[in-house]
Amino acid sequence: MALSKEIKHLEQKTVLLLMGKTGSGKSATGNIIFNDRVFESEMRSSSVTRVCQTHTGVVNNRSVTVIDTPDFRFSTHTDFDSDSELKKALELCSPGAHVILLILPINTFTEQEKDFIDWFQQKFGAEALRFTLVLFTHADKTRQRPLGEMISRNTQLSDFINHCGQRYHEFNIKDRLNRRQVNEHLQKIDRLLSENRTSYTLDMMQETERRRNENERRAEEEIRIETEARVRREYEQEILEKQKTEESKEKEHQTTLERVRIETEARVRREYEQEILEKQKTVWKKLKHLFIKQINLKYFCAVIFFAVATGGVSVWKKEKDSSYGWMFTKGFFTGGSAAAAGVFTGILWRLWKSQFICSSSPERPSAVRQLLLKTAGVVCGLSAGAMVGLFVGGNVFPVTALAGIGGAAGALAAIR
Ligand SMILES: Nc1nc2c(ncn2[C@@H]2O[C@H](COP(=O)(O)OP(=O)(O)OP(=O)(O)O)[C@@H](O)[C@H]2O)c(=O)[nH]1
Ligand SMILES: [Mg+2]
């Protein structure tokens, strides 16, 4: 029975993949598992293991293959190709790594160790944690607390170990003769094998990488879409702002135009009214000036002469019931009014002539035309005098005739 179990173990080799930082003790772990110096392990400032190495041996009557690896994350060698070496490591694991031993020095957990764990999870994917067992080395170094307490005090480390199903073990590499620690380690490995019954393969890592690339591509696409949408939003917002500014500018411009129009209209109207007023004043002044200029002594004499003459004729032609005084007064008034009407007609004629005839043409009217114009003025004066005689003098022929002559004489005096 025991023999058949041993044969079964030897037939089913256990593949262990060692992972960890330079100096963490990967090669030393391999050596202690085989209780032999199968991998190069020494204290050096540069990485010791440069390429993946594999060794198969019998440990506790079972076939064990260990793949010792270089530090994939912090190799000190500049020509080190991490990705191709990692691929090689998983190819060496054929058919796959039953257990990934993640080696961490127990006494140090710096940013580099955290970084290594992050890189491991990202590169191998969440599925790899099913096959991972954390192996603490440097257990011989003095420490203040038990390992369990040290783990629980470090949040990131305890989270990681939780994700690995609380699988961890510690090795005191200096205590080479202590095979108990190796046996216990193999028991934990057996538990893991019975839980999984599969192994971590290169395909799994490549699938993880494909998924990661896909996620990155999707994330980039999302960022691109989001950026495009944001840029579009910002552009539309800018256009809207510009439109608003232009509209408000246009509105302002229209308001200014309207204000200027109203102000201009008001100013033009004021100026026009002022001009009209000025013109009216000027015309009125001119008229006043002309009238005052026209009134002189000869008109007065003509008026008095015809007033007295008509008064005399009225007395001579006295009506029966009228007194001499009344008749003279009536005749005086008739003759004076007729002469004054004639003078007025003559002045009007002169104004009319100066305003409308002389001003319309710069040339002086001909003598015949002047004579005709004067005659027309005199006839107008005569008519005005006769009308006054007719209506004021009481239609007495000599009075009316004298009044007409008085009007004509008044007009002639004004025209000349
Ligand atoms: N005291 C002590 N020394 C250890 C322990 N583990 C490893 N060392 C020493 O640390 C040095 C480096 O160990 P390695 O096994 O070569 O480390 P590694 O992880 O293989 O390093 P690389 O091959 O460079 O990636 C060696 O001198 C080991 O003896 C340990 O548990 N205790
Ligand atoms: Mg090494």
TrEMBL record:
Protein biosynthesis in keyword set: no
* One GO cellular component term: endoplasmic reticulum
Origin superkingdom: Eukaryota
Name one molecular function that GO assigns to this entry.
Answer: GTP binding
The entry's localization annotation reads: Cytoplasm, Cytosol; Endoplasmic reticulum; Golgi apparatus; Mitochondrion
Q: Where in the numbering of this chain does the AIG1-type G domain appear? A: 11-209
List, alphabetically, the InterPro entries matched: G_AIG1, GIMA/IAN/Toc, P-loop_NTPase
Major subcellular location class: cytoplasm
Transmembrane region(s) = 295-316, 328-351, 371-391, 397-415
Sorted alphabetically, the keyword list is: Coiled coil, Cytoplasm, Endoplasmic reticulum, Golgi apparatus, GTP-binding, Membrane, Mitochondrion, Nucleotide-binding, Repeat, Transmembrane, Transmembrane helix
**GTP-binding is among the record's keywords:** yes
Name the coiled-coil region(s).
204-252
Q: Which Pfam families match?
A: AIG1
| Family listed | Belongs to the TRAFAC class TrmE-Era-EngA-EngB-Septin-like GTPase superfamily. AIG1/Toc34/Toc159-like paraseptin GTPase family. IAN subfamily.
The job of this chain, per UniProt, is described as:
Exerts an anti-apoptotic effect in the immune system and is involved in responses to infections.
In its UniProt entry, what is this protein called?
GTPase IMAP family member 8
Species name:
Sinocyclocheilus anshuiensis
Instruction: Give the lineage.
Output: Eukaryota, Metazoa, Chordata, Craniata, Vertebrata
Q: Which gene encodes it?
A: LOC107671232
